């Protein structure tokens, strides 16, 4: 299944990429699975997307949690928590 990944703010800066299209392996079915799969890349990917790290996620422009299922051609975004003022 192919999906579009987008990275914003400090996540984008750390990973040195703004977006990419990936072909997910079997068994990667949720936003949380995508995050875990990306961590396997190691190095800065493992650190930036670490399980305990505060990170927001969206699927098709809607804020979501790790349990949200991904679908063919969806867009998953990762970004740091933001505050308003």
UniProtKB/TrEMBL annotation:
<dbReference type="Pfam" id="PF02597">
    <property type="entry name" value="ThiS"/>
</dbReference>
<protein>
    <submittedName>
        <fullName>Molybdopterin converting factor subunit 1</fullName>
    </submittedName>
</protein>
<dbReference type="InterPro" id="IPR016155">
    <property type="entry name" value="Mopterin_synth/thiamin_S_b"/>
</dbReference>
<dbReference type="InterPro" id="IPR003749">
    <property type="entry name" value="ThiS/MoaD-like"/>
</dbReference>
<dbReference type="InterPro" id="IPR012675">
    <property type="entry name" value="Beta-grasp_dom_sf"/>
</dbReference>
């Amino acid at each position: 299944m192919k999906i579009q990944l987008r990275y914003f703010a400090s996540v984008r800066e750390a990973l040195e990429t703004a977006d990419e299209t990936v072909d997910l392996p079997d068994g990667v079915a949720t936003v949380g699975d995508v995050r875990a799969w990306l961590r396997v890349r190691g190095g800065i990917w493992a650190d930036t997307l670490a399980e305990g790290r505060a990170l927001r996620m969206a699927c098709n422009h809607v804020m979501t949690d790790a349990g949200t299922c991904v679908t063919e051609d969806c867009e998953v975004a990762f970004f740091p928590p933001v505050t308003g003022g």
